[in-house]
Amino acid sequence: MRALTANRLVDGEVVFWREGQWVERFADAQLFQDGDAAAEAAEAHGKNQPTVVVEPYLIDLMEAEGIWAPVSYRERIRALGPTNLAHGKQEEGGAMVEALLNTQGAARSSGRVNLIKRK
Predict the structure, then answer these.
(1) Which run of H or E residues covers position 69?
(2) Residue 16 and residue 26: Cα distance in Å, rounded?
(3) Residue 97: CA atoms inside 13 Å, Cβ hemisphere, count?
(4) How far is 100 from 115, CA to CA, in rounded Å?
(5) Would the pTM count as exceeding 0.85?
């Protein structure tokens, strides 16, 4: 499965595609089958709205315990919204946030951080 995401220009908020419009919650995102022409059509439609969002793109999803979540750890963080304060998407998410945080498999973080030395 896949979902279409982007960042809203007006405030930088992460948004997801749902039937012709952008929604803020990942739980409300429209899911597309792999290879579904509708996904590419939605992406093209989203890209034709340059004054609304920044460069929309499709993300891969996986199912864990009946909950769909982004495969990429980075995309899971984006789906949750700000992580330093309990507000916005996290406050509204409840069980959805818990499910995304506990997703197993490819989406799970290794916990490693590589530091880059600056000259």
Answers:
(1) strand 67-70
(2) 6
(3) 13
(4) 26
(5) no
